[in-house]
Each structure stands twice: as C-alpha cells, then as structure tokens.
Amino acid sequence: MARGSAARVVTANALIEGDVVWLTAEGRWTRDLRQAQVFSDDESASAALAAAEARSGEVVGCYLANVRPTPNGPEPEHFREDFRRRGPSNYFHGKQAEA
Amino acid sequence: MYHYDDFDRAFLAERNRQFRAQVARRIDGSLTEEEFRPLRLMNGLYLQLHAYMLRVAIPYGTLNPDQLRKLADIAERWDKGYGHFTTRQNIQFNWPRLADVPDMLDALAEVGLHAIQTSGNTIRNVTSDHFAGAAADEIADPRPWAELIRQWSTDHPEFQFLPRKFKIAVTGSPRDRTVTRAHDIGLRMVRQQGRQGFEVIVGGGLGRTPMIGKVVRDFLPVEDLLPYLEAIVSTYNLLGRRDNKYKARIKITVHEHGLDRVRELVEARFAEIGPLFDKAATAAQLGRIAAMFRRPPLQARPAAPYHAARTADAVFRAWSDTNLHPHRAADHAIVTISLKAHGATPGDATSDQMRLVADLAEAHGHGEIRVSHEQNLVLPHVALADLPAVHAALRAAGLATANAGLISDIIACPGMDYCALATARSIPVAQDIALRFEELRLEHDIGPLKIKISGCINACGHHHVGHIGILGLDRAGVENYQITLGGDGTETATLGERTGPGFAHDQIVPAIERILQTYLKLRNDRSETFLQAYRRLGLAPFRAALYQEDRADAA
Lengths: 99, 555
Ligand code: HEM
Ligand code: SF4
Hints:
The complex is a heterodimer.
Chain A: E1 8-14, E2 20-23, E3 29-30, H1 42-53, E4 59-70, E5 73-76, H2 79-86, H3 95-98
Chain B: H1 6-27, H2 33-42, E1 45-47, E2 52-57, E3 62-63, H3 65-78, E4 82-85, E5 90-93, H4 101-110, E6 127-128, H5 143-153, E7 168-171, E8 185-192, E9 195-202, E10 214-221, H6 225-239, H7 250-257, H8 259-273, H9 279-292, H10 304-312, H11 314-322, E11 324-326, E12 332-337, E13 348-350, H12 351-364, E14 369-371, E15 377-383, H13 387-396, E16 411-412, H14 427-440, H15 443-446, E17 451-454, E18 468-475, E19 478-485, E20 497-498, E21 503-504, H16 508-522, H17 530-537, H18 540-554
Parallel strand pairs in B: 6-7, 7-8, 16-17, 17-18
Antiparallel strand pairs in B: 1-2, 2-5, 3-14, 4-5, 4-13, 8-9, 9-10, 11-12, 12-15, 14-15, 18-19, 19-20, 19-21
The structure holds protoporphyrin IX containing FE (HEM) and iron/sulfur cluster.
C-alpha cells in the first residue's frame, strides 16, 4: 500500500471493536485520521510500524498508509483509506455515523 | 429438516466453549494475533475493513422459523439490525465486537446453527438447490445427502488443513441452480437403469483462474458417496500445491496433472478406503436423516383465490409472473422473496424482515425457509390459495419486489464497502443499475438476465458466470469495472468473455445500458433472452456499442 518515501500514517483495527484506528504522536490510537502522526521518511515510518505491531493486545493488522498532509491534517491518498475513515457507502454506519 | 441429536449438541457446545476460551486468551494477551487468527477463521470470524465479520453457515440453504428469528435477534442485539445473505448460503454479520462473538455463537447453538468451517482451508458449508424438495423438475431431494456430507466433513481430522478452501455443492435436479460446475466438487443426482447415483464433477472454481469443473465419474452409486468424496479430498490433500496460494485449489491440481491422472489416483484411493467404510452405518444414518426431510403433508387447495387475485390486482400479477416457480404439487408454488428492492443492498434483510418471513413460513409455508445463492429468501411450499395473503404481507415489509431473475436481481459481493481484500466497491454498482433500469421501465421488457458483480478477482460475486459479469478493479488508484458477457452458471455452464478495457465508476451504468439497448435492438423477438441473443450474435455488436463513443472521441 505504501510506496517510496511519501507521507504515511500507521493504521490498524482495534482488537475488540475491530474498527479503524490510527497512531498519534503521543502513541495513542485515535479514531480520527486528522489526529494521526505523519511520518515522512522510511526509517521513522518503519520504526513506528514495528513498535505498533508489538502492541498486539490493542490492535490487529498494522500497516502504513499513504497520506497527503493538509492544513487540516492528513488526507488519504487512496480511496480504500478514504472508505476506511468514513464507513460503507450503502448505509450510514461506521465512522461517518460516529463523528 | 435436520434436528440435532445429543451428540451434535454436545459437539457444538464443546466447540463453542473452546472458542470462548480462545477469545478470552486473545483478549488477555496469552495468544498473539498470529496464533489466534487460524482459530478465529475456523470459527467463521473475519476481520474486514471497518469491523469484524461473523459468517454463519446455513447448511444447504435450509432454515426453520426459529432459526431465522434467532438470526434476527442476533442482528439486533449484537449487530446493526440486519444480516447479509451471501452466494454461499451463509449469513454474514458485519459489525460484531470480538468480545461478543462467543455469546453470538452460543445463541446460534440454541437453534442448531454455527459458524464452523465457514472459513479456513477446510471443507466449507455445503450448498444445494434452494428449491430442493419442492421443485417439479427434481429427481430427489439432495438435502439428506448434503447433511450427510456436512456431518462427514465437520471437524474431519484429515481435512482441517487442506492446501486451500474446499467447496462442495449438491443438486437433485437436472436444472442446475447451485452452480455445481464452479465448485471444487459438484454433485448432480442422476438415474441410470433405475438406480440413483451422482455425476461427480471436480475442479471447478472461480477466483483469479476460473475453471468449469470436469466429470471425474459419470455415475457414482449413492452408497459410495462418502468414500468417494474422501478419496477425492485425500488425493487433493497430498497432491495439491502448498507452495503457492494462488495455485492451491483443486482446479489447479486437476489442470496441472490432468483429469485422467487425478481420476486414476482417486479411483485407486477409493479402492483402498472404500472397504473400510461401514456402509450399513452410513445407510442407517442416511435413513435417519432422510426421515427428517420428508416432504410436508400438502393439502389439496383450490387455486381459485389465486386466479381471482391475478385478475383483480396487476401488482400481484406482476409479482406472481416473476417470483413463483412450479412446485411438484400443481396447487402449490415456490415463492422467491426478493432481497433486491431497487436501490437496496443485494442480500440484506433487516431483523423485522427476517421475523416477518419466519411468521409467513409458519403460517403458510410448512415452516420452511430457504436461502438462495442468488441472495434471496425462498418459501418452498406455499398453496396458491395463500399467495394473495403472503404477497400482501411481503409488500407491507418491502419484500414484494417483482424482479426474481430480472436485471435488478443482482448478485453482488460486499466489495470495498466491507471486504478487506476488495479492489473496488460492488454494492453501489448494483444499486445504481437497479435504480437506472427501474427508472427506464425496461426491466420486464429485457426479461431474464443475470448480472453478477465482484469487488476483486476472487470472484465471490460469481461474475464469471453472470450473463453480464462486472469485476471491480483498482486501476492507478481509481475504481475501474471490467465487463464479461455470456457467462452461465447452470447446467450449460460457461465462463463469460471480457469485452475489453474497463469503465470508471460513473461510466459503468451507461455501459450496461448500451449493452442492453443493443440487445433490445438485435434480439429476434421478446422470447429470445439476452443469453440466447449473445450466443447467436457473439461479442462483436456488444463490443461495438460499448466502445463506439470512445472511438468517436479519439477520432
Ligand atoms: C471477508 C469477506 C471475504 C473474503 C476475505 C473472501 C475471500 C475469498 C477468496 C480469497 C477467494 C478466492 C479463492 C481462490 O481463488 O482460491 C474467494 C472466492 C469466493 N468467495 Fe469469498 N470472500 C469473502 C466474502 C465472500 C462472500 C460475501 C461470498 C458470498 C457472497 C463469498 C463467496 C465466494 C465465492 C462464491 C468464491 C468463488 C468460488 C471459488 O472459487 O471459491 N465470499 N473468496
Ligand atoms: S470478490 Fe473480492 S471484494 Fe468481493 S467479497 Fe470476495 S474477496 Fe471481497
């Protein structure tokens, strides 16, 4: 999903709820992509991913997702990540309903 | 239908107890995700895009009212008030919390349902004809055999770690409504010189390398079914590839080794293990099962109220034209309850809808409900005289869409609205097509048509065997939809042909419209279906219609 040295965030699904979470600069898991920490070099991104993967009691399936930094926080590069932050398009369920 | 005995109940309770403990150990940190994943998959628990998903088997698509009500309760209590019926005769709950899943499984066990082997590299839920036991065109009810296969395959110690998933479908009718030829093993009941047997088809499958299954045995006496299945699966277990997940299905094994070699190995294995099977015990068990599938006692009923309603009520007439199928008793019908209201998500039913269907089955349908691979529900035994009442009740619940077998009766996989493997969405494409043709008022004019949509090459939406197949892909970061034409999932199974380059999300509905305008223009008359016209005309005129505008632009 993540290529080159683009801006990236660490994302995963929460262990109990299964919903999408992102890693913040404080090392918390947030349900709001805008609060995610953006990594702009490979080394810090991989290190953050490795550290996140070790937190297997909190989350499942960590990976790096490309983002575009904007004044309002990171925006997803790919439509898959856009769906993940919003929820399904057939019902008003998931994140879009919780915001 | 099948009723659990003490053995079944104890088995399920023990299995659920084990899984409850596994979930607890995952939550308290004693199990890593790596350790837990295969355990949860064996119990039907996936992780999707937005949440976990619990996939519950509906063996051979048969439900009783209590089971359907329990599914409704589960959807309400632990999910978001609906369930998604799938092409594999499962129901999927899209929003469970991990900690709640053990309670959900216990609730399912109360009515003899489970999620065992709905995932993983095991023998999956056995699918069958949704009209089984009722269809006028049937040789025999295949469900006792399907139940026997379920019992044999559940927790079968040799087959818990196959090279890949393994799917078996059984039909008792020459009219194949189960897509047997796209299964790892397809069983078609046949008769030879008065004896009942199965035609055994092996090596079908869809996914990234679609293949139509091949006949490995044209007549297998029914009493040899289990040893023969065991011979096939155990041959595959050894021969199937484990080095490459994309080459691990039996279709590739058959393709690489050739049907003759596979047959030789299977027959040799069959000769070896056949004598070890206790035929008398199997026959006794089959007899016990078959007694539970006895046809309900149908009372002769006058059809007059039905004919009167057809004359008086155009809405009822339209529905009865499309959503009924001939029953073996002429004064009865098989009712398809469409879960495809125009603009709705194919296969979804709310808890209230499930409860209504359960009530109707009890009041008018001898307590039987079926789930079809086409993502609809079915009441298999309804007296014609009761149809006006059934229709009125369905209509009030938004369940009387008159579209079974028509353009809006679309199979669509969950796609990128739910599935973590998806490369594009499928549900909105289905919704848009249904709404567009409803708006054009062309649905009934177009007639029988099967559109099937998958959100990635795994082909869970059966797109290869759709008359029109749509495959959602990711092309350079945008959703793109490829079209195949001429696919067929019945006894004349055929894989569709690709038309050419795909279409963007906002171009796919206009593209489908161009295909169908071409069909309407070129068909001989109304009696020539889309598939027949396609077979006569070939791809060329449809391709021309699809890509003409692009060419005009380029010129
Ligand atoms: C979490 C959701 C799902 C996942 C992860 C998933 C995964 C897969 C994969 C990986 C394949 C390809 C197997 C292969 O080619 O070896 C496949 C095939 C298939 N799946 Fe799914 N699937 C999902 C949902 C569904 C649903 C909702 C249905 C029913 C509507 C379904 C029915 C099928 C069918 C019919 C096939 C093709 C037949 C075959 O060759 O096995 N799947 N699925
Ligand atoms: S076809 Fe692909 S997108 Fe659709 S359910 Fe299967 S794996 Fe998911």
